Protein: KTNB1 protein
Organism: Psilopogon haemacephalus
Amino acid sequence: MVLSAKVSALSCTEEITAHSSSVSSVVLGKSSGRLLVTGGDDCRVNIWAVNKPNCIMSLTGHTTPIESLQINTNEELIVAGSQSGSIRVWDLGAAKILRTLLGHKASICSLDFHPFGSFVASGSLDTNIKLWDVRRKGCVFRYKGHTEAVRCLRFSPDGKWLASAADDHTVKLWDLAAGKIMFEFTGHTGPVNIVEFHPNEYLLASGSADRTVRFWDLEKFQVVSCIEEQATPVRCVLFNPDGCCLYGGFQDSLRVYGWEPERCFDVVLVNWGRVADLSICNSQLIGVSPAQSTVSSFVVDLSRVTKSDSVPGGLMRDSEPLVPPAPAGSSLRRIYERPSTSCSKPQR
């Protein structure tokens, strides 16, 4: 199902001069959707409110360009990885460095905070994945298996697994408690740049330089579907909070996908170029895109975007079976159980 591309859902844009040199990394807070963090070749980490021109806070400490950033769930901590392989964690409330983490031998490509515990995962050009406890110095565990740079890391919503995407064309799923790989997903024919867990179901999405988006079943450990070659690779992805669809940020558009069966529900034309991250706030999708020393913010009104086949007037292929929409809250696979306590450290 593909609807006509629309531009009316794009409501506004804003551009800020974020750094004195090139912007090398940007990330949005997923809880509020309004916190923007930028990292630059000037070795600084700057904090902004989306669509506000003034920098709230500037964090220093790194001595080489910032290559990766992440914000924790409650938006109280920020982690930044640099070109030298060093990692620094800041406490935003105290406006100070909480921890400096050393151990990688090359540039940091990816970072993620554990959803409940005080853990950070890092992936590097040195092909290693490290798990850190921000309460103390030193690496808690190292996960080895990738043969090229680790481009993206994501913890599962229940905090039990870690997914990694790498230039070696694979996606790996790691059991944090056991400290070992659970499964390796193959099928991409190019570097895998993005991986994202479904917010509720045992489902994983991955995007690659091969210009495809793949969906993986985490119970059966097999591919669910594949969005075939697009004109350009997807740059970032985000599931809708209720899990009904996946948003894909491309160089010239926002695309809305379903996966059973694979289909494109809608296309919104957005000339956002190197869009680097997406978040959702009050039925608005926010995308941020760096260009030299500036960062532009784009806002898409999701109330005007088609997210499923249940919307009246949807167009379907003649060969496509008519499937009634699933009841709200239903699932085709197992649902994550959120623990009430932090995750335990991996077994050695």
Q: What stands out?
A: The two ends are 48 Å apart (CA to CA).
